[in-house]
Amino acid sequence: MLYDDSYRGYSSAVGNFNEDADQEYIVGVPRAELLRGQITIYRQDLGIIRNITGEQVGAYFGYALAVQDLDGNNLDDIIVGAPLYSNYTSVHSYDTGRVYVYYQNRQFPGFDDIYCRYCLHYGPDWLITSGLEDGITQMTKKSRDERQQFVWNFPLDVTFKSTNPHGWPQLIVHAYGIDFLGKSVVRGYGVCHVPITPGNHKLRLPMFVPESTSMLQKFRAWTFGTRPEYVDVKVLGQGEGREVTRVRSQGFITVSFNVVMKDMKKN
Q1: Secondary structure class of 236 (helix, strand, coil)
Q2: Is the dihedral of CA 65, 68, 73, 74 positive or negative?
Q3: Where are this protein's FG-GAP repeats (predicted)?
Q4: pTM, rounded to two decimals
Q5: pLDDT tens digits, residue range 67-103?
Q6: CA 254 to CA 74: how far, in whole Å?
Q7: Do the beta carbons of residue 41 and residue 94 sit within 8 Å?
Q8: Are 132 and 119 in contact (CB under 8 A)?
């Protein structure tokens, strides 16, 4: 419940919080919600995206606001100040203040259990001398902290040899989860080239899922739990035919590469 003296707008900031091209507004309301304080995220049309309420009466949660990418994932995080927060377990900790950090993570929003399959796509002049061309990770749950990340820590160890750089290897990742019918359904596809320089590389793979082309197909997919999927995921490593596929963005996966090369400069 908001009162006339809730101090709505006492602090404000802008950032991107709903995966579109527009900036959203964050407004601090330090006396809202029975003096617990609140911040509100607005779209540009002033529709409310989310409210976040403070935990302590009189702490002035929302007195100060800032937006910054703190964890380096290219997503805006929210920093909220509550300058009058008190630790009532100690007589010397009144009005010491507290800073709250809300990490934004859209790895796979709305899902909790995810596992991944992977495969490698490469040209005819390339040959795998050790390691597996495809595989599957364990099922993992979303972390319970503010970042809500999925972590697999699944190592891939592959050695290639080639006489021609044409057809440079690509990593294709497809993530799966369990739907309400207990079926394994795709949560996203992503693809990237293996880095062409030696060393450590961290790549962020935007994930996407195929879309049904008609309302009837969407209804059938929802009814029978048969979501659109690629029959052969290696088509993602090719240019031909992909322009006729309708897709939408859905999350991302971060992959770390450690690349070692030998005799690449020989003629």
Answers
A1: helix
A2: positive
A3: 47-111
A4: 0.60
A5: 998 877 677 889 999 999 998 877 777 888 999 988 7
A6: 12
A7: no
A8: no
